[in-house]
Write a structure and sequence with these properties.
352 residues, alpha+beta, Rossmann fold, OB fold (Dihydrolipoamide Acetyltransferase, E2P), 2 domains, 8 helices
């Protein structure tokens, strides 16, 4: 059942369209990530949901209630910013208490809720410290506790981990997902980090130039991207130039001289994508020449030149030797791992 509904939401600044006709249905307790490059419209979308930016068109509905015309403070949503936005002159407890004071909660109950929120984020013993006395990761936990203590129906996160180093960011991703699952809070995260979106999300909304390009589970978007932008934005991928031809009542995909069974709407040229980890070196398959190899520890990343285009292959470091530069190899893969790419916004087709 839909909990939060975004209907035809759009934002225009004179001649510039920041967000256009965005539609999204979010279920209760679902974790959604808005993913895309800088300037794609993800933060503007989040700000319209929060009430910080007035949409040019469309609606934001929460449990059937229209939030579109309400000021941010009347929506009751929790927000965590990239910059933490803590009050520097207040202690941790005072920062977390702020939202409860605005709701005029009694002091005894307020102290109880503050203690619970700080325990939840692992800061139960640090309530009397000031933000300047804490690390970036601890400050972000304070910001999260402040957003959660009011028990918001929706938690909005605007790139909350982007200022942290890689190891701390990874640790906090796990903590964030644990907290979200334990509370069952509907959550929308804005991020440009593909790994973060895939690690945290129930579904990902991929955006570019103000448009939603694809919505789906992380594994579905990764394995079956709707277009080349989505394929390339979510990690390394290969784009093959192929030709679909009719043969004896069936269709066949030609990659150079390699013929593969294929099912598509009509014969003709086609662009296909496949992830490097789905390709392996074998005695049969698409012939090519290793042009470059880079050692990455547990795998080699090899660039192979073929008649269908240049191909990146992940060759696992599991005991077998990796072909050297200049050697001829053959590349094998399951045709079902190939995805035919349409234009932006088009649905992908599949292999037999």
């Amino acid at each position: 059942m839909t909990f939060l509904s975004i209907r035809n939401l759009g934002k225009r600044y004179q001649d510039f369209v920041a967000v256009q006709d965005t539609n999204l249905e979010v279920g209760e307790a679902e974790f959604i990530s808005l993913l895309g490059p800088s300037g794609c419209g993800k933060t503007t979308t989040l700000q319209m949901i929060a009430g910080f930016t007035e949409p040019t068109k469309g609606q934001v509905m929460l449990q059937g209630r229209d939030l579109t015309g309400l000021d941010a403070h009347r929506r009751g949503l929790g927000v965590v910013f990239q910059s933490y936005a803590l009050f520097p002159h207040m202690t941790v407890e005072e920062n977390v208490s702020f939202g409860l004071e605005m709701r005029k909660m009694a002091s005894a109950e307020r102290r109880k809720q503050i203690a619970n929120a700080l325990e939840l984020v692992g800061l139960g013993a640090l309530g009397t410290r000031y933000p300047r006395e804490m690390s970036g990761g601890q400050q972000q936990r304070v910001a999260l506790a402040r957003a959660l203590v009011i028990k918001p129906p929706v938690l909005l996160l605007d790139e909350p981990l982007s200022n942290l180093d890689a190891k701390l960011r990874e640790d906090l991703q796990s903590e964030l997902r644990r907290i979200q699952r334990s509370l069952g809070t509907t959550t929308i995260l804005v991020t440009h980090d593909q790994g973060e979106a895939m690690a945290l999300s129930d579904r990902i909304v991929v955006m570019d130039h103000g448009r939603v390009e694809q919505v789906g589970r992380p594994e579905d978007i990764y394995d079956r991207p709707a277009n080349e932008f989505v394929a390339r934005f979510l990690g390394k991928t290969n784009a093959f130039q192929g030709e679909v031809v009719a043969r004896e009542g069936a269709t066949v995909l030609m990659l150079g001289d390699l013929a593969l069974p294929w099912q598509t709407s009509a014969p003709g040229a086609v662009v296909l994508t496949i992830r490097p980890e789905k390709i392996y070196m074998s005695n049969e398959g698409l012939p090519g020449v290793v042009k470059r190899r880079v050692f990455q520890g547990f795998f080699w990343l090899c660039a192979v030149e073929t008649a269908a285009g240049d191909v990146e292959v992940i060759h696992l470091n599991v005991g077998s030797s990796c072909p050297r530069e200049g050697e001829t190899v053959r590349l094998a893969f399951d045709p079902r791992d190939l995805t035919a790419l349409g234009q932006k916004g088009a649905e992908s087709k599949g292999a037999v």
